[in-house]
């Protein structure tokens, strides 16, 4: 396939299908097997706290891995690093399925996270290679919507697998996903030209992270994207306790509410696409952040006043409605100044979104507050924080006379 073919309707459908698959790797890797935690604990004669280590080490690998795969991709291109990384990912997933002890599962999960990072880094970098400005924003919004939808679909799919098989089969499914991804990436053309590649050694490339972090637009964009991820992590992390423990929903009711968010994320992405046809990226981002602040404020106020199931559920879903738009557009702004170091810049955004968000989620979970109160409070605080970052960014732009895209 040639690069020119990727800009045809058929080529774009294939491209975005591959990018969606690559962006889903982290969430599928972390969320698909979560319904099987109890089964894993029983089989290895341990407790859930120990099984949680398989999740923590995977997040660690995912964060560190993006810092490694970023400079590799900027130096050697997109296709080869992705194929190698995903190949090791598939082997590690099979290793998870065959693990007969918790330490072996933790080791395989760590390697799995390290190599899942290659898919995320390469996916973002390909978008930066092929698109500019508003077109890049629309592309990243589409990719980001899959990134945000995947944590909602993963547990539902994992629970369905447990109905007819064991937790081992969940990792067999991930092995198959890796193999499919390899064939898909192999069909793509190389999007990073020889002239655009970084020619310095990997050690020097690692130093470039400091250069990227000095860029004001990158810092604000990455921070805005991370705050949006905080909102998703809080929603996903505490929704089971809110719906099943507080409101008493059964597993099917929980799955229906949880899965319905995928539909609304897709609607949000389509709205973002339309807005970007006539408005600048920064303007659409402003709309999305303000909407999220207003809705999360209503959630905090009405949720605490009424405690009504429908009020809480509808407003929680509405609060994350803007997340795909915020993440996609803020990532566009973060990567805008880094055509030649797109993979490294994207890696830093990814590390921030995954590693920092998971640490934030872990700290919040330790607070001795009931799940409903915790969710309402922190979703409002995150909405408020996102608005503050937006205001600071726009003031900084006016001060320095930056041109908005």
Structure report:
This protein has about 400 residues and is mostly helical. It has a single domain (about 5-190, about 200-400), classed as Growth Hormone, Chain: A. The chain contains 16 helices and no strands. The protein has helices at about 10-25, 25-30, 35-45, 50-75, 80-100, 100-130, 135-160, 165-185, 200-215, 215-245, 250-280, 280-305, 310-320, 325-335, 340-365, 370-400. It is globular. The mean pLDDT is about 85.
CATH topology: Growth Hormone, Chain: A
Quaternary organisation = single chain
Low-confidence segments, given as residue ranges, are none
The number of helical elements comes to 16
Shape from CA axes?
A: globular
Please indicate the count of domains: 1
Separation, N- and C-terminal Cα atoms: 31 Å
């Amino acid at each position: 396939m040639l690069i020119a073919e990727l800009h045809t309707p058929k080529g774009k459908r294939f491209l975005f299908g591959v990018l969606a698959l690559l962006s889903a790797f982290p969430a599928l890797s972390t969320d698909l097997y979560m319904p099987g935690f109890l089964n894993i604990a029983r089989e290895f004669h341990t407790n859930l706290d120990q099984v949680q280590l398989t999740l923590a080490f995977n997040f660690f690998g995912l964060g560190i891995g993006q810092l490694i795969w970023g400079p590799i991709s900027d130096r050697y291109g997109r296709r080869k690093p992705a194929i190698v990384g995903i190949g090791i990912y598939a082997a590690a997933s099979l290793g998870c399925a065959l693990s007969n002890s918790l330490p072996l599962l933790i080791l395989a999960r760590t390697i799995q996270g390290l190599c899942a990072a290659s898919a995320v880094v390469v996916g973002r970098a390909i978008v930066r290679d092929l698109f500019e400005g508003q077109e890049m924003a629309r592309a990243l919004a589409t990719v980001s919507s899959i990134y945000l939808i995947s944590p909602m679909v993963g547990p539902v799919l994992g629970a369905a697998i447990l109905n007819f098989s064991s937790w081992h089969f969940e990792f067999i499914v991930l092995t198959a996903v890796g193999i499919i991804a390899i064939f898909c990436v192999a069909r793509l053309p190389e999007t990073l030209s020889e002239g655009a590649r970084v020619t310095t050694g990997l050690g020097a490339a690692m130093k470039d992270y400091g250069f990227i972090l000095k860029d004001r637009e990158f810092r604000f964009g990455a921070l805005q994207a991370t705050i949006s991820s905080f909102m998703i992590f809080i929603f996903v992390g505490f929704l089971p306790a809110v719906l099943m423990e507080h409101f008493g929903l059964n597993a099917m009711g929980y799955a229906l509410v949880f899965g319905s968010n995928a539909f609304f994320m897709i609607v949000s992405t389509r709205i973002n696409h339309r807005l970007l046809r006539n408005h600048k990226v920064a303007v659409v981002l402003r709309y999305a952040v303000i909407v999220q602040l207003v809705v999360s404020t209503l959630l905090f106020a009405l949720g605490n006043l009424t405690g009504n199931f429908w009020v809480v559920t509808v407003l929680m879903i509405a609060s994350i409605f803007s997340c795909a738009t915020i993440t996609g557009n803020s990532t566009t702004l973060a990567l805008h100044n880094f055509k030649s170091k797109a993979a490294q810049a994207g890696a830093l955004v990814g590390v921030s979104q995954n590693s920092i968000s998971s640490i934030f989620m872990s700290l919040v979970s330790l607070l001795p507050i009931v799940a409903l109160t915790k969710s309402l409070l922190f979703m409002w605080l995150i909405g408020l924080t996102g608005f503050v970052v937006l205001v600071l960014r726009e003031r900084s732009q006016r001060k320095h006379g930056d041109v908005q895209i």
